[in-house]
Amino acid sequence: MTTPGSVYEAIGGMPTFRKIVSGFxxxxxxxxxxxxxxxxxxMAGAEERLAWFLSQYWGGPPxxxxxxGAPRMRLRHAKFPIDMAAHDRWLELxxxxxxxxxxxxxxxxxxxxxxQHMNQLAGMLINKAP
Length: 130
Known about the structure:
Elements: H1 7-10, H2 14-25, H3 43-57, H4 63-68, H5 73-77, H6 84-99, H7 108-124
Helix pairs in contact: 2-3, 2-6, 6-7
């Protein structure tokens, strides 16, 4: 069930979140900082989980909770060394992905809301001092 009037509905639902996530993950294999953190044998799974998480957060169906339980993002990412360089790179690749989506699909107001959330999320996951 989706939340009526949600960002999820306003930007076209799961297809738009899949575009955001697939654009991000297309950059991961060749990335020197983030690439080593992602398991090659589960890249599709990681991509699916991020799509579930983002779409659920923005009012879509609770796919993340149904398939993985509560997000607990800090706990789930604790095993990865996330420093400021990883934080910055994650945001860089995510911005690249967002920039590939036309404004008709992702209007500026929603793009800014999603971008602000991504900045908060990336900051929250830093677990390694410089």
